Hints:
Blueprint: H1 2-16, E1 18-19, E2 27-32, E3 37-44, E4 49-56, H2 62-66, E5 74-78, E6 82-83, E7 88-89, E8 113-115, E9 118-119, E10 122-123, E11 128-130, H3 132-138, E12 142-145, H4 149-159, E13 162-168, H5 190-194, E14 200-202, E15 208-214, H6 219-226, E16 230-236, E17 250-253, H7 264-276, E18 281-284, H8 286-295, E19 299-315, E20 327-338, E21 348-354, E22 360-365, E23 373-376, H9 391-406, H10 430-436
Helix pairs in contact: 7-8
Amino acid sequence: MFTRHIFRIHKLARGLATHAESFTGLPAALHLKTGQTFKGKSFGAPRSLFGETVFSTSITSYTESMTDPSYRGQILVFTTPMIGNYGVPRNEAPYDSKDVGVVLESKGIQCAAVVVGDVAERFSHYTAVESLASWCKRHNVPGITGVDTRAITSLLRDQGTTLGRVAVGPDACLPAPEVHEYWDPTTENLVDQVSTKVPYELNPTGDIRVAVLDFGAKSNILRSLVRRGAAVTVFPWNYDFNAVRDQFDGLFLTNGPGSPSHCIEAALNLRKTIQEWNKPIFGLCMGHQVIGMAAGLEAYRMTFGNRGHNQPVLSLASTGSIKAGRVYVTSQNHQYALKLQDPFPAGWEPFFINCNDSSVEGIKSTVASGKNIIGVQFHPESAGGPLDTIEMFTDFVSDCKATRLALGLGSRAKLSTPIDYPLNVPSKSAPEVAAAA
Length: 437
């Protein structure tokens, strides 16, 4: 009787799962520039494209990964065998002190394509409104299922991130492209494609004013700031913050896609900010690399990068909620990193080191420098991922408030006065940037 009762509950639970929208099942193939081909079936948009093939070890939060602007131009391979089992939520949220307009990391899918071992034909979650296949089709993003993603991952780990082509339908039956036909998205300024074009404000009634340079910001970065009481103004990646810096209590530099070599202009602007401004600065991922370049460090391309929710990093120093000698588990998505050099530039020191590959995971200004600047390669805001370092946002906001008090500006920003930011701050020309670098 007990076994029969359990069986009935099991049948009921299965019955609550929603059938995913049926997908075409057209033949599909993933061609790698290094010569390997993996054949499966398509879902999502029935179209072919080129991109950079990368893998993620995340076992959950595929919707957050796919909407992360850092995946722009990339064919995303999930190592987890089944993807899509909890569907896709309605991607809408209020604009207030708790949220920033979307539930996921941006308004739409950012990766070029997805490759999964087994796409779920049923999805079941109380917030889900559509299937992964339906979502991809609506955003014109192709997917491949029925391939050995572990074999693909092994290849990418051995040979590094590789250019690829997703071929769907009749294209899947054609020979693989010639080597010269593959398109490399990192030759383009992907940051400029995903960054906001005009400044905008969030949570204008907050206690402090934080400026954000948007290199391709995940929404949860902005959400983490407004939920801690910050009034946030988001600027384009190459906006000259020095023109408006005295109106803000802190500066935040976000994540972003592609090569940091395209962001030299931002690094040069930031170098002036660091020299002349003494308020808190915090950067993560691409923002961390821009801080490093402004400090005089060099960024390099890693073999296959770090992407996933389980990257351990060792803290080398204590500040705020971070304690020296502790290992923190972090969420990461990056292909480039800062070179570890000895000696470090004057006024700077390493902050975190990756426990797996010894890459630089963070830098900070020294106490002797008189500055309060931190850059981390990982994502403290999680979503999805571990919460080990989420309080770094609290530390940053607290430092901004403490700086206001130290400068005699009061505990709350006078937000009744509108921010005066010129919309057309002159940018350096390409030759000027190259000469300055």
